[in-house]
Design a protein that fits this description.
Elements: H1 3-8, H2 17-20, H3 24-34, H4 38-46, H5 61-65, H6 70-74, H7 78-81, H8 85-90, H9 93-106, H10 109-120, H11 139-162, H12 182-185, E1 194-195, H13 206-209, E2 212-213
Parallel strand pairs: 1-2
Helix pairs in contact: 3-4, 9-10, 9-11
Length: 222
Amino acid sequence: MPLFWLLGFPHRLKWWTPITRLQLRLSFRRLWLGSNNPLRLFFWLIQPFPWRFRVPPQLTAQELRNFKNIRTRRHDGILQLRCIPLFQYRDTPLRSIYRIYEYLCSGENYEVGYEVQYFFFHPSQWRIEDIPDPRDDNQERYAILASLIDVLVNSFNWRYDLGLRRSGNREDPQPACEVAPEWAREVKRLAEPLDFEPGFLKEENAFVRRNIYLSSAYFYNV
């Protein structure tokens, strides 16, 4: 019996209403078209424990330098997952920040722009200051995370000044300015430079202030 039919069969039953709001049938169709392994990804998506997805084991900045096709190898189906309600409910701001870290270090800057947009328009309207301390034991990775949070704060406040709102409704009043969480403000500058883009014109940004040479341009896509 087709899986699409099974997912849609009980749609008239009252007890099924909360489940239909999760758009499981549409979600499976999205994954089928946008994932290398849609069945594996779909069953990962609907398994209930733990409810909030955990941050996966991370690579170092040096390992990510030469990591090719990170979107398909580390984040299969992410373009579709960002549009799926169940994924949005179970995703966390910390996981999103780590995805930005991976895209930055692997040089897939266009993915940085997509992820920043996803964070900005997330239905839960995550506040940057509420991002918990990951207590990352890798000094370079920790410094990159803190720096990208600082850049994210600037880019969100820049969007607010342009009139953009996280709800998508420009008529909403301007929200309070975003601020970085305290833990990010306390992360120290690296003793040795970490240069991902040799030869590029060093712009003044939060990365450079921590001795990390990365561009922040893709944080400002609208």
